[in-house]
Amino acid sequence: MSARHNGERVAPPQSDDAVALAINELGFLRSLSKGVPAYYQGLLNASEEPLRVAALVALLDLKAIWSAQAELVLANAHRGAVKRRAFPFFLSVYAYNFAERAAAIESEDVDALMTERMRSELSLDYERMAELDIELYMAHGAPEYLWSAESNAERAGGWRASVPHFVRSLLARPMDSNGPFHLLIALQSANQSQLVNDVCAAFETAGVFKSESRIFRATLAAEAGDHKSALKLLDQVPLSSPNAVLNAFNLEVRAKSLDALASFHDSYAAYQRMNRTNRDASVDPKAYYRALDRHVAYTFEGEQTDARIASHLMMVGFPRSGTTLLENALAAHPKIETFEETPAQSRMSRWLERFTPNARVVSSDLASEARDQYFDELARQSKKSADVIKIDKMPLASGDAGYLRKILPSMKYIFSIRHPNDVVLSCFRQNFVHNPAMENFRTIADAVALYDRTMAEWFSVHSLNDDPSVCYVRYEDLVQDFRPTLERVLDFIGVGWDDAVLNFVEAADKRFAKTPSYKKVRSGLSIGVQSSRENYKFLFETKETAVLKKWVKHFGYDE
User: Fold this and answer.
1) Residue ranges of domains in the chain
2) Is residue 104 packed enough to be buried (19+ CB in 10 Å), middle (13-18) or exposed (0-12)?
3) Which residue, 306, 288, 413, is CA-closest to 346?
4) Are 64 and 40 in contact (CB under 8 A)?
5) pLDDT tens figures, 327-365
6) Which residues are within 8 A (CB) of 501 and not within 5 positions of it... i.e. 6 or more apart?
7) pLDDT tens column, 50-68
8) Residues near 268 by beta carbon (within 8 Å), at least 6 away in sequence
9) Measured CA angle at 287 (ends 397, 151), to 5 deg
10) Which of 2, 356, 387, 479 has the fewest Cβ atoms nearer than 10 Å?
11) Helix, coil or strand: residue 343
């Protein structure tokens, strides 16, 4: 696992063998049936230091250290997480000599670790961040460092690098309700059905995490086409769990199986309940509209030019329109670097908001400074050489078309098109991350409103058929005529064909799964064009969805 042992840097494991070895460690869970103290006593025999430290941390917190283990505690007190608990523990049992010895042991310099962690974050060195997260966990004992390591390991090396970290977090804190779900969803999103089965089997043998096992057994049954069995498994799992994320996923799996069984009204009801369950009341979906209104209200003085724009493009359209598939294909090209939903545009906009809070008039100098923020952020995120073409993927940037035309006037765009009904339906059926934009997908009506607003803004600035600054790519063409479509896009970008784009599935398998689309992208083109709109026609025959008809016609689709 990714950590620094005895001062030596160990790279995060990325092989299938390393993943299998990590999952094998789940055997420790079998001793949970004997009680929490007995479990952590067993975990002291783990092969890796972070788990042994986790065991000592828990046992000291539980005051479940045996007298004969005092020397073991002291032998590990060079780890701050152990030392800071060992001293008060020894005091509480009047073992003053051991307390004095613990106090004399030198542990890590937490401030130095934090400083290096900060520097690694500034340089986006995710591998080192994951290593330091583990070091900080052993220095402090806070589980947040374990959770951070999971994400950073995946960013550094894909799902294979993250699995050992998910296993470690789970074993260190088996009572955390998120641990088993995070491990299983990482494997399920990577299309690793056998590993999902192996993890469920480990849980079942240990007699733990029964709800998680049944839900993910249901996903396996659904993948095998046995949707009735999937629903029977889900019926055994109550939706009253305190873990809202698990409840929402349960409903998502149920909705998909109901859809496969042609119970479309019931499926829709399950998706509605999923979105109600997953709604975050602290996130205001209208805040996204207010941001769009602020941007379009800017007035720019003078002519806006910037030579850097020539080597950059944007990927726009709308979520669930094939942008992730296209972005992964382009990312595999050696002369292209893509950026997936980075904070570059947000950083540029916040710069303007900082210096024009009321006037809304942007001078040429201020606009140039704002563009500096945008290009600097992309340069910070870059992993390829400076001479490649940079493509910034941000589907919802379409809603900022007028603003972008003003501040980045010569920018070229790749715009993904999919049937509007399929787009809206697909957005509604996803468990997106919580932010003001994505919270607009909790109902069909809100998703339709955002789609209409976005398309109206885009086509108030750009045209569909004769705009030299835009390359339009239909989702159906991308899936059914992949090479000709990619050749046309590459010609627009200004680079030649490279067979590397044909290997996008292999490349996507090693990337951080930033959007729900990665599971299908990792399946390649074999799944074909995905469309469910005909099954849900009852949703698109209402007043609230009527506005989509003009966009269906605009894009040349049959209703």
Assistant:
1) 1-175, 286-520
2) exposed
3) 288
4) yes
5) 989 999 999 999 998 999 999 999 999 988 777 899 999
6) 329, 330, 332, 333, 486, 490
7) 999 999 999 999 999 999 9
8) 255, 536, 539
9) 65
10) 387
11) coil
**Full-prediction pTM beyond 0.85?**
yes
> Which helix H or strand E contains 377, and what residues bound it?
helix 364-381
At 333, which amino acid appears?
A: H
Residue keyed to tokens 């999103």: 189
Residue 282 structure tokens? 């602290």
Yes or no: is domain 286-520 CATH 3.40.50.300? yes
CB 270 within 8 A of CB 254: yes
Looking at residue 12, its pLDDT comes to 45
As a whole number, the mean pLDDT across the chain is 92
- Eight-state DSSP code of residue 399: G
Task: Tell me the two tokens of residue 409.
Answer: 């006037």
CA 139, 145, 150, 153 torsion: positive or negative? Answer: negative
Report the distance separating Cα 486 and Cα 149, nearest Å: 36
CA distance 495 to 158: 27
What token pair was written down for 513?
């799964």
pLDDT at 444 over 60: yes
Number of H helices, E strands in the chain: 27, 9
Beta-bridge partners for 362: 300
Give the closest residue to 155 by CA, choosing from 128, 193, 176: 128
